[in-house]
Amino acid sequence: MIQKQYDKMAAFILRKSGEISVGVADVTLPKISYMTDTVSGAGLAGEIETPTMGQLSSMEFGINWRTINKDLLNLAAPNFHSLEFRGAQQVLDSEHEELVIESVRIVVRGLPKETDLGKGQTAAKTDSSTTLECTYLKVDVDDSTIIEIDKLNGICNIGGTDYWEAIRKALGL
Hints:
The protein is mainly β and 173 residues long. The chain has a domain at 4-35 and 56-136. It is built from 2 helices and 11 strands. It has helices spanning 70-74, 165-170; strands at residues 4-16, 25-28, 34-40, 47-56, 60-65, 81-93, 98-116, 128-141, 144-150, 155-158, 161-162. Strands 1, 2, 5, 6, 7, 8, 9, 10 and 11 form a 9-stranded antiparallel β-sheet that branches. It has a two-stranded antiparallel ribbon with strand order 3-4. A hairpin with a 4-residue loop joins β6 and β7. It is globular, with a radius of gyration of 20 Å. It starts with a strand and ends with a helix.
């Protein structure tokens, strides 16, 4: 049985609209969190916080810059931006007893929520940052799409299941 132990991100690049690189930075990838409501009442021994199928809370994509640069400033424009995170993650293949590289690709589209120019200090990074509100998220691992969420077009596909399919059908879409 092949068992993969995910070890670490060996390297990554960040692209904006297909450009090869977006500065020297580290990123905070989006968190997938469902909108919930608390259910309580007769027949339940307490409360249950239930997710609403296909409805997601705010998703943020963050970029932490070392310096103030054109990429940081251009992402402040109140327009939709498309970014692509490409990583090479190191994986331990226990069947073959070897370290292998697996690709991960994350595409996000969204609007700027915050641009923080950081601080000015001699011989130090500025700690500037960009935060985008994600309206679209796609995650591919080794060229296989695992997650695709498109909030503007009613898509919530995770692991091959379209959680908006029944919703679209119920709405006659």
